[in-house]
Amino acid sequence: MTSKGKNQEGEKLSKQKLAAEPFYRNEKNPEDICISFDREKEVRKPTVLLHSCCGPCSTSVIDRLVPDYDVVVYFFNPNIDDRDEYLKRKETQEEFISRYNKINNANVQFIQGEYDPEEFYTCVEGLEEEPEGGMRCPVCFEMRLRATADKALEMGIKLFGTTLTVSPHKNYQIISAIGQEIAREKNLEFLDLDFKKKAGFQKSIEMSREYELYRQNFCGCSFARTISEKKSREKGEKTNNEQ
Ligand code: SF4
Q1: Residue 37: helix, strand or coil by DSSP?
Q2: Pocket around ligand 1: residues whose beta carbon is below 6 Å from it?
Q3: Rounded Cα distance, 221 and 226, in Å
Q4: Ligand 1 midpoint to CA 93 (Å)
Q5: Are 225 and 131 in contact (CB under 8 A)?
Q6: Predicted confidence (pLDDT) per residue in 139-173, tens digit
């Protein structure tokens, strides 16, 4: 598994960092220097509350973060307004985390937010006709990032982030601006990374195959689903007409 190598690499880097740190290299009287130093606390990885939209998108994001962070996945997606689809994606997420932890000897945690599609409908009222990537989506991002930030506050976690930027269909600049704004408001930090970089999206596809995860073919809400189904129908009709 690639992440194992990465873990070893991460460990190696941490050790190198520690060895290079003058604090640890004072050979005259190391005991004196260590008296007031809480080594455990100092070397512990920061915790990030990572909002996840679905298991497949979370794969490469989690794998990228695990060497440097204690990752707590927050599954909060009332935008998936079909309950069966929601449960399928939630189970896929849990299944991935559980297997990833076993294979990589990791300790990624999972928590689920409240599921109430009405919350989503209320937020996006009047934007139902917008296409995917239109004006409805930033509202949907904000709803999920706000809930993640609130959960982080409740749990005493300073840092929050989201898997959303791994998708080439999602606008990183918009997500980044929303995350930064919420972080400022709530005195938190936003893990501002474009996870599609460093071949993140491609890797998420490969890992989803490797773990045999269920991968949906539409974003989440019924509005996007209708458009996606219409496109597939049109594509099918076009193919049939061409035959
Ligand atoms: S298309 Fe996706 S991001 Fe946009 S509103 Fe629907 S679920 Fe949210």
Answers
A1: coil
A2: 79, 132, 136-137, 140, 219-221, 223-224
A3: 9
A4: 18
A5: no
A6: 999 999 999 999 999 999 999 999 999 999 999 99
